[in-house]
Amino acid sequence: MNAKTEIEHQLENWKQAVLSQSLETIMPCYAEDVRAFDAIAELQFTHRSKYETHWQNCLQMCTMTQFEIGQIDIKVDGDLAVCFFLNQCGGIDDKTGEEQVGWVRGTQVYQKRDNKWLIVHEHFSLPFDMATGAAMFHLTPETSW
Protein backbone atom coordinates (compact mmCIF):
# COMPACT_ATOMS: atom_id res chain seq x y z
CA MET A 1 0.00 0.00 0.00
CA ASN A 2 1.43 3.42 -0.90
CA ALA A 3 1.70 6.24 1.62
CA LYS A 4 -1.18 8.27 0.16
CA THR A 5 -3.51 5.26 0.45
CA GLU A 6 -2.33 4.71 4.03
CA ILE A 7 -3.18 8.34 4.86
CA GLU A 8 -6.60 7.97 3.22
CA HIS A 9 -7.22 4.96 5.48
CA GLN A 10 -6.03 6.86 8.56
CA LEU A 11 -8.30 9.79 7.70
CA GLU A 12 -11.24 7.42 7.34
CA ASN A 13 -10.31 5.71 10.65
CA TRP A 14 -10.21 9.13 12.34
CA LYS A 15 -13.60 10.04 10.84
CA GLN A 16 -15.15 6.78 12.08
CA ALA A 17 -13.59 7.30 15.51
CA VAL A 18 -15.16 10.77 15.71
CA LEU A 19 -18.54 9.38 14.62
CA SER A 20 -18.26 6.77 17.39
CA GLN A 21 -17.94 9.65 19.87
CA SER A 22 -15.55 7.49 21.85
CA LEU A 23 -12.37 9.07 23.20
CA GLU A 24 -10.85 5.58 23.36
CA THR A 25 -10.97 5.38 19.55
CA ILE A 26 -10.35 9.07 18.75
CA MET A 27 -7.22 9.77 20.79
CA PRO A 28 -4.95 6.97 19.46
CA CYS A 29 -5.07 8.80 16.10
CA TYR A 30 -2.92 11.56 17.64
CA ALA A 31 0.75 11.70 18.57
CA GLU A 32 1.58 12.44 22.21
CA ASP A 33 3.16 15.75 21.16
CA VAL A 34 0.29 16.85 18.90
CA ARG A 35 -0.19 20.59 18.47
CA ALA A 36 -3.75 21.49 17.55
CA PHE A 37 -5.57 24.67 16.64
CA ASP A 38 -9.30 24.06 16.94
CA ALA A 39 -12.02 26.45 15.79
CA ILE A 40 -13.42 26.79 19.31
CA ALA A 41 -12.18 27.32 22.86
CA GLU A 42 -8.45 27.79 23.43
CA LEU A 43 -5.90 29.27 21.06
CA GLN A 44 -3.95 26.01 20.89
CA PHE A 45 -3.53 22.59 22.47
CA THR A 46 0.04 21.41 22.93
CA HIS A 47 -0.23 17.81 24.11
CA ARG A 48 -2.53 14.87 23.51
CA SER A 49 -3.78 14.89 27.12
CA LYS A 50 -4.83 18.55 26.82
CA TYR A 51 -6.44 17.90 23.46
CA GLU A 52 -8.26 14.90 24.91
CA THR A 53 -9.84 17.13 27.55
CA HIS A 54 -10.98 19.46 24.77
CA TRP A 55 -12.40 16.55 22.76
CA GLN A 56 -14.25 15.34 25.86
CA ASN A 57 -15.80 18.78 26.34
CA CYS A 58 -16.82 18.95 22.67
CA LEU A 59 -18.42 15.50 22.75
CA GLN A 60 -20.39 16.47 25.86
CA MET A 61 -21.79 19.61 24.18
CA CYS A 62 -23.75 17.83 21.48
CA THR A 63 -24.81 14.52 19.99
CA MET A 64 -23.03 14.18 16.63
CA THR A 65 -25.41 13.89 13.66
CA GLN A 66 -23.19 15.06 10.78
CA PHE A 67 -19.53 14.42 10.12
CA GLU A 68 -18.50 14.32 6.49
CA ILE A 69 -15.15 15.03 4.88
CA GLY A 70 -14.94 16.38 1.35
CA GLN A 71 -12.58 17.91 -1.17
CA ILE A 72 -9.63 16.02 0.28
CA ASP A 73 -6.13 16.84 -0.94
CA ILE A 74 -3.21 14.78 0.39
CA LYS A 75 0.48 15.57 -0.09
CA VAL A 76 3.10 13.04 1.05
CA ASP A 77 6.86 13.47 1.30
CA GLY A 78 8.72 10.71 3.08
CA ASP A 79 7.43 10.28 6.63
CA LEU A 80 5.31 13.46 6.55
CA ALA A 81 1.90 13.95 4.99
CA VAL A 82 -0.48 16.89 4.89
CA CYS A 83 -4.25 16.56 4.44
CA PHE A 84 -6.43 19.51 3.47
CA PHE A 85 -10.19 19.08 3.49
CA LEU A 86 -13.58 20.59 4.16
CA ASN A 87 -15.53 19.07 7.02
CA GLN A 88 -19.27 19.31 7.48
CA CYS A 89 -19.96 18.66 11.11
CA GLY A 90 -22.64 19.29 13.63
CA GLY A 91 -25.10 17.81 15.96
CA ILE A 92 -27.96 18.27 18.33
CA ASP A 93 -27.25 20.86 21.02
CA ASP A 94 -28.02 19.00 24.24
CA LYS A 95 -29.27 22.21 25.91
CA THR A 96 -31.51 23.61 23.16
CA GLY A 97 -32.34 20.45 21.21
CA GLU A 98 -31.52 22.27 17.95
CA GLU A 99 -29.38 20.79 15.20
CA GLN A 100 -26.39 22.97 14.35
CA VAL A 101 -24.44 21.96 11.23
CA GLY A 102 -21.83 23.86 9.26
CA TRP A 103 -18.71 23.55 7.15
CA VAL A 104 -15.24 24.08 8.59
CA ARG A 105 -11.80 24.01 7.02
CA GLY A 106 -9.47 21.29 8.20
CA THR A 107 -5.78 20.52 7.92
CA GLN A 108 -4.04 17.52 9.44
CA VAL A 109 -0.31 16.81 9.37
CA TYR A 110 0.63 13.17 9.76
CA GLN A 111 4.01 11.75 10.65
CA LYS A 112 4.94 8.10 10.34
CA ARG A 113 6.21 6.89 13.71
CA ASP A 114 6.93 3.27 14.51
CA ASN A 115 5.32 2.30 11.19
CA LYS A 116 2.04 4.11 11.99
CA TRP A 117 0.75 7.42 10.66
CA LEU A 118 -0.20 9.72 13.56
CA ILE A 119 -1.65 13.23 13.55
CA VAL A 120 1.06 15.60 14.81
CA HIS A 121 -0.80 18.78 13.89
CA GLU A 122 -4.47 19.56 13.37
CA HIS A 123 -6.08 22.87 12.48
CA PHE A 124 -9.78 23.66 12.11
CA SER A 125 -11.13 27.08 11.28
CA LEU A 126 -14.39 28.79 10.44
CA PRO A 127 -14.74 31.66 8.01
CA PHE A 128 -16.09 34.77 9.71
CA ASP A 129 -17.54 38.13 8.73
CA MET A 130 -14.91 40.75 9.56
CA ALA A 131 -17.52 43.50 9.97
CA THR A 132 -19.59 41.65 12.58
CA GLY A 133 -17.20 39.02 13.90
CA ALA A 134 -19.91 36.38 13.34
CA ALA A 135 -19.02 32.90 12.16
CA MET A 136 -20.32 32.13 8.66
CA PHE A 137 -21.93 28.74 9.17
CA HIS A 138 -24.16 29.15 6.10
CA LEU A 139 -21.34 28.82 3.52
CA THR A 140 -21.19 25.69 1.36
CA PRO A 141 -18.33 24.37 -0.80
CA GLU A 142 -18.17 25.00 -4.50
CA THR A 143 -19.11 21.88 -6.43
CA SER A 144 -16.65 22.61 -9.25
CA TRP A 145 -13.59 22.02 -7.10
Structure overview:
This protein has about 140 residues and is an alpha+beta fold. The protein has a single domain (about 5-125), classed as Nuclear Transport Factor 2, Chain: A. The protein has helices spanning about 5-20, 25, 50-60; strands at about 30-35, 60-75, 80-95, 100-115, 115-125. The chain has a 5-stranded mixed sheet. A hairpin with a 2-residue loop joins strand 4 and strand 5. The longest helix is centred in the first third of the chain and has 18 residues, at about 5-20. The protein is globular. The protein starts with a helix and ends in a 20-residue tail after the last strand. The model has no long low-confidence stretch (mean pLDDT about 90).
Q: Return the domain count.
A: 1
The fold-level CATH name is: Nuclear Transport Factor 2, Chain: A
CATH class: Alpha Beta
Give a short account of the largest sheet.
Answer: 5 strands, mixed
CATH architecture name: Roll
Radius of gyration: 15 Å
Distance between the termini: 27 Å
Shape: globular
- How many runs of DSSP E, i.e. beta strands? 5
SS summary, helix count: 3
Share of residues in helices? 10-25%
The helix/strand class is: alpha+beta
Strand order of the largest sheet: 1-5-4-3-2
Poorly predicted regions are none
Tell me the strand percentage band.
35-45%
Overall pLDDT score: 91
